[in-house]
Amino acid sequence: MLxxxxxxxxxxxxxxxxPVRVVFLHGWAxxxxxxxxxxxxxxxxxxxxVALDLPGFGSSPNPTVAGGRRHYAxxxxxxxxxxxxxxxxLVGHSFGGAVAxxxxxxxxxxxxxxxxxGVPLVSVSTPTRAPRRYxxxxxxxxxxxxxxxxxxxxxxxxxxxxxxxxxxxxxxxxVASVNETYEDEVKMQSVPVALLWGELDDxxxxxxxxxxxxxxxxxxxxxxxxxxxHLLPTLAPHELATTIQEALS
Length: 249
Hints:
Elements: E1 3-5, E2 10-15, E3 20-25, H1 36-44, E4 48-53, H2 69-81, E5 88-93, H3 95-106, E6 111-117, H4 132-142, H5 148-158, H6 161-164, H7 168-178, H8 183-188, E7 193-198, H9 206-215, E8 220-225, H10 232-235, H11 237-248
């Protein structure tokens, strides 16, 4: 059963009884339901949790202002301040993991530990430039020489699948997020950080995890799951639940 959290504009699914000890934050274009199997297993062991739908996904309405993951951290923090009876274990996958990392960096009093899965924390490769034709169309559009219809057609042809499938404020959120990196927040961590990665993650490769380890000064660990891709929360919920229980111990 979905419930409203924070100021009433953030929705999520509660699992288990008693004080909330774990909060799940999902990836881009996903929803809290990704963590259902993991949260159900934790509930069977007496651990209550909430799987939030981030703004613009699932049951939560779009944000009123476009911003990247740092802005999302500001939107989620009020909900965390009202949950549970003490610091929470934040579990973040991909987009949601970056949000969790920012929250833990700036509000460590709210966070007992971080469990991060396939999170784009650092850049490990040089970004590829957009095709020359697309850059030309974009330039001409900015000068008023190309119509919005033609510009949108170019976006659909040359943009990523996430970009093509988003629109309005959520497309602006995506663009802002892609241009963010989180090395500073990784270095700021004072809480334990557990990295859980799929060996076959082709969205956020294992190299991102190993590079992140070099920046962490707080207690940390990395576990790589053979044969698992980017959608680890749905592919390996038991392994995720085990990592969370270790973070709670």
